[in-house]
Amino acid sequence: MATFLYKLGRLSFRRRHVIALIWVALLTLAGVGAAGAPAAGNSSFSIPGTEAQKAFDLLEQRFPGTSADGATARVVFKAPSGEKMTDPGNKATVRETVKELSDGSEVARVTDPYQAKAVSKDGTIAYAQVSYKVSGMELDDASKDALEDSAQDAREAGLTVEIGGDALQAVPHTGSSEIIGIAVAAVVLVITFGSLVAAGLPLLTALIGVGIGVSGITALASALDLGSTTSTLAMMIGLAVGIDYALFIVSRYRAELAEGREREEAAGRAVGTAGSAVVFAGLTVVIALVGLSVVNIPMLTKMGVAAAATVAIAVLIALTMIPALLGYAGRKVRPAGEKSRLFGRARGQDAPAKPNLGSRWASFVVRRPVAVLLLGVVGLGAAAVPAASLELGLPDDGSQPTSTTQRRAYDLLSEGFGPGFNGPLMVVVDAKGSDDPKAAFTAVGDEIKGLKDVVTVTPPAPNKAGDTATITVVPASKPSSVTTEDLVHGIRDAGTEVRADTGANVLVTGSTAMNIDVSQKLNDALVPYLVLVVGLAFLLLIVVFRSILVPLKAALGFLLSVMAALGAVVAVFQWGWLSGLMGVEQTGPVMSMMPIFMVGVVFGLAMDYEVFLVTRMREAYVHGEKPAQAVVTGFRHGARVVSAAAVIMIAVFAGFIGSSESMVKMIGFGLAIAVFFDAFVVRMAIVPAVLALLGRKAWWLPGWLDRALPNVDVEGEGLRAASGDDDGDRQLVRV
Fold first, then answer.
1. Residue 195: enclosing H or E segment and its boundaries?
2. pLDDT band (50, 70, 90) for residue 132
3. CB–CB of 468/428 below 8 Å?
4. Angle at 84 between CA 81 and CA 85, to 5 degrees
5. Are strands 160-165 and 72-78 parallel, antiparallel or unpaired?
6. Helices (H), 295-355
7. What average pLDDT score do residues 655-683 get?
8. Which among 299, 462, 590, 616 would be 20 to 30 A from 657, CA to CA?
């Protein structure tokens, strides 16, 4: 592989005009496609195989024309102080609003609060339910404007009016903090390279890669039903890895220049060595992201595949466009150790190299491996303690900022009708196989009324055929509570008894039941996902490092960092620690897909640092250095760059904490803190400590396995042999 990438690097350096033209053309093509495509909305949410989804599909069949998947809006009215919604003036205002809402071409139906008895017991709050013929993603702006205008007219008449539901769901924005993250990355690059030109190359290529990836996602959003969150997450991961991959190749290029090589040769060797690490690091990220498809949640699969495609683009750009741009930059990119005049003089070319911070730190760890190892493990273990209290759920309007009308509508409904009113359960009774469907409907309703935590059970509403009915159940507790989850399981258990007696099948659906089913599905998929992703990456790392214990140590270190990161997420978003600083207005359960998504993304990113750092150590070891000295050598060459890459990635992820979307905010924080733990605690402390303790055993590989594995030559051994640089002191570690 190193030889092929070496040739690719030299070719890209020589044919830089062609390479640059190709990437600019791809960026233009993707941009044109995105400009002509409909804006991304909220993708349809289906969970194949769950009871809630089966009930939803049954409603589509048995209640045709009801637009079960259509957008909904709850227009909530509150009377002025001292008045009631049943007062004649307020009543007239509400009915006029209902009439206005009914005029829309996409409106399926609007319920009158007074006919539907949707007025609170104290008479101060009422709501009208608006159902649309199309989903929230397909809803026209004219329909949204009409909804807001009707609410504004009622406000001008003196009522407090807020709108909940998914009809007004907006595309999330990330805010200025995303720009701050990129600015921090730029500063780190300038400090690392001591050159504005060298610092600008990773930023430029990363932005081009993300531009192609996100524009491609936008262009295909409507055809593939990709939500707005998909492009946001692809941007987040694409920026981070794009900058990092380019950073490693530029850094290696400068090191090759410092050894006296010509620029084209240096570019080829940089791509042949650091580029090999980039390929394998990118593969681990792609495996982790594409592996999300095993969960069988379409939305999560699309997010993973889209982000993986962006990572693949980042790898290709790093391997081709970076050497092309290095060709354009010429002498403006200086050898390692030299800085531009703007940053002062560096040491002379003949001056002896002093131990840098990385080598001094590695020397300390090698002398005190047990103490460093214990401190790192205990520290991460302490950070992971809150993860034991992890509660999972999906965000609803109650997790929105208090400044939004959706959140204010949620609070008004809780105030007027109880906390459970925001998460009603829909019970679908399929009595097609029953001898007496009406009796079955009644039996189900009576059974539910006898359960705890039930406030309201509506009479069964059968379809025209009379073989299926819906029953709405309002819990006493809020949708995200454990009590409501117990109620859902209680209804399902009661349905089993009813089925035995009447032959009717009872299914529970609705957003609350769907959230519960999603959480369970994700929990069930976590272990198979871990086995698949970690197993494949473990095999890949065996090929890269030609060792058993190094990949095993990498996987265990990852588990430590991801558990510590989950503990931090629980502490902030569930317990409320530092929630004000993070802009978290409402604490609650952690998003259901957070653990499995964090496992996937963090594992891929963690392996980046493992590959970049440890390949340098192996490179030194196979050329004759003792194991402890190889650790120090690896840190001397790689610690500064890996640290810079980690800071950049943390800055990019942290930039998304300013998002208005709670899911993006949580993922941004979780990934940022996970990279911090993994890069600076696991890879910079635990890894060298373990390697120092293992010594030569770290690089042990059975002889039969060594012969069976393909030689991918990540260290660039073939390049040295071809050029006569090989001094013949390579060690073959076999047992």
1. none
2. confident
3. yes
4. 120
5. antiparallel
6. 298-329
7. 84
8. 299
Instruction: Kindly report, residue by residue over 338-376, the tens digit of the pLDDT.
Output: 655 555 544 444 444 567 788 899 999 999 999 999 999
Distance in angstroms (rounded) separating the CA atoms of residues 273 and 6: 8
Q: What is the pLDDT of residues 501-535, one digit of tens each?
A: 888 899 998 888 888 888 888 888 888 888 887 78
CA distances from 587 to 26, 384, 570, 590 (A): 43, 19, 10, 9
Task: Classify residue 735 by its DSSP letter.
Answer: -
Rg from Cα positions in the chain: 30
What's the full length of the chain, in residues? 735
pLDDT of residue 723: 56
**Of 198-207, 318-327, 549-558, 709-718, where does mean pLDDT reach its minimum?**
709-718
Give which of 511, 497, 434, 501 is closest to 468, Cα–Cα. Answer: 434
The count of other CB atoms within 10 Å of the CB of residue 413 is: 24
Burial readout 232-247 (b: 16 or more C-beta within 10 A, e: otherwise): bbbbbbbbbbbbbbbb
On the CB side of 254, CA atoms within 13 Å amount to 25
Q: Kindly write down the DSSP assignment for every residue of 65-126, as one continuous string.
A: TS-TTS-EEEEEEEPPTT--TTSHHHHHHHHHHHHHHTT-TTEEEE--TTTTT-B-TTSSEE
| CA distances from residue 11 to 204, 248, 272, 329 in whole angstroms, order as listed | 20, 19, 12, 16
**Residue in this structure with the two tokens 């059970």, named with its chain if needed:** 457
Model confidence over 418-472: pLDDT tens digits?
Answer: 888 888 898 999 988 888 888 888 888 888 988 888 888 888 888 888 889 999 8
- Tell me how far the alpha carbon of residue 568 is from its chain's centroid: 16
Residues sharing a CB contact under 8 Å with residue 114, sequence separation 6 or more, in sequence order? 86, 91, 94, 95, 126
d(CA 6, CA 319): 10
pLDDT of residue 685: 93
Q: Are 644 and 626 in contact (CB under 8 A)?
A: no
Out of 106-115, 292-301, 583-592, 611-620, the most confident range is 106-115
Amino acid, res. 590: V
The one-character DSSP state at 64 is: T
pLDDT tens for 147-159 read 889 899 899 989 9
- Alpha carbons 230 and 339: distance in angstroms, whole number: 40
Number of Cα atoms under 13 Å in the Cβ half of residue 346: 19
DSSP secondary structure string for all residues of 160-187: EEEEEESTTPPPP---THHHHHHHHHHH
For residue 338, the model assigns a pLDDT of 64
> Which among 653, 696, 531 has a CA at the least distance from the CA of 178?
653
d(CA 586, CA 517) in angstroms, rounded, equals 23
316: which residues sit within 8 A by CB, 6+ positions away? none
Instruction: List residues bridging with 72 in a β-sheet.
Output: 131
Q: What is the DSSP letter of 555?
A: H
Could you tell me which of 381, 456, 389 has the C-alpha nearest to residue 420?
456
